[in-house]
Amino acid sequence: MAEKRKKIGNLSVHPLCLGGNVFGWTADETESFAVLDAYTEAGGNFIDTADVYSAWVPGNSGGESETVLGDWFATRGNRADVVLATKVGGGVPKRRGLTADAIKTGVEESLRRLRTDYIDLYYTHWDDTSVPVSEFITALDDLVREGKVREIAASNITAERLAEALAFSDAERLAKYVAIQPPYNLVSRGTYEGALSATAARHGLAAVPYYGLASGFLTGKYRPGTTVDSERSEKAAEYLRTERGPRVLEALDKVAGAHGAEPATVALAWLAAQPTVAATIASARNTGQLPALLAAADLQLTVDEVDMLTEASA
Fold first, then answer.
1. Of residues 39, 53, 123, 177, which has the active-site annotation?
2. Do 138 and 173 form a contact (C-beta atoms < 8 A)?
3. What residue stretches are annotated with the NADP-dependent oxidoreductase domain (predicted)?
């Protein structure tokens, strides 16, 4: 499995990053533990969560996913075997934004829930333009120096602010972003391609896209006239009402048929073939959804297949 690993800063990660947004939401602790066990047994070592998961559920306050992960680490004794990514600044009640105080309070609470003394990859979840980059980069650098964080990264940030943050890190010789986590998939390419991807490439940043399966649409289970029992079905079904959506599904079906693969596997393989992408994030509510996701690490698309999918998604 080692030959599949990709580099993000000094971290060595599996190319399929397991999304933790479902833990404590659509997957209870038992289901979450089963998915986590199956993922790591298959060679996976990269898990993504956030302090805000899943504050959108009535009765939740955020941190539920981190708590599930912390309990799993404690029962399995495998914290050192996992590259753990979490985030700060995503809107947890009473702790919004990227002020130095918000970051320092946020990391302590995440460490407590995760039952660990360090985070491998710590993202600023959403940019906070009311805070200068000097403040949040300095706060993140403090965490790295204290050994609480190994590498830092940015999610949901513009190319301009990303460049500004990187320039400040260089000028002051402080911790520097090594990765970016944008929404990016076959039916949402403008969310990363262009100025943002060019900035990442210019500075040698790794991309770890989220929404890689477009809320499940690119699994192929959403078709005209079908009804899917899922928390995300309404969002995924929106893609059917565009010209691009059905066109992409047709191309996915063709490539998947040629490889005897699932559409989800092909969609993630296309994403993995894009410049700067080091790993793709996908979540699984149960172990039955995992094989198609993990298979993307082994599926090598031809140049013609990548081009066909790219053209269909234009």
1. 53
2. no
3. 15-312
Taking alpha carbons only, the member of 7, 308, 122 closest to residue 109 is 122
In sequence order, which ranges of 80-123 are alpha helices (DSSP H)? 100-114
- Asked if 92 and 128 touch (Cβ cutoff 8 Å), the reply is no
**DSSP H or E segment with residue 142:** helix 133-145
Strands (E), 105-239: 119-124, 149-155, 177-181, 206-207
* CA nearest to 234, candidates 218, 220, 217: 217
How is residue 137 written in tokens?
């980069």
In the numeric block, which tokens belong to residue 73? Answer: 């680490």
**Is residue 91's pLDDT more than 80?**
no
Residue from 213, 220, 236, 228 nearest 283 by CA: 213
Query: What's the predicted TM-score (pTM) here?
Result: 0.95
What is each CA distance from 195 to 40, 180, 208, 228, in whole angstroms?
35, 13, 16, 36
Query: From CA 158, how far away is CA 221, in angstroms rounded?
Result: 32
- Residue 201 corresponds to which amino acid? A
CB atoms within 10 A of CB 304: 9
The per-residue pLDDT for range 118-172, each reduced to its tens digit, is 999 999 999 999 999 999 999 999 999 999 999 999 999 999 999 999 999 999 9
Strand partners, 92: 95
Average pLDDT value for residue range 166-194:
98
**Correct CATH for 2-181 of 3.40.190.10, 3.30.1440.10, 3.30.2000.30, 3.20.20.100:** 3.20.20.100
239 in catalytic set: no
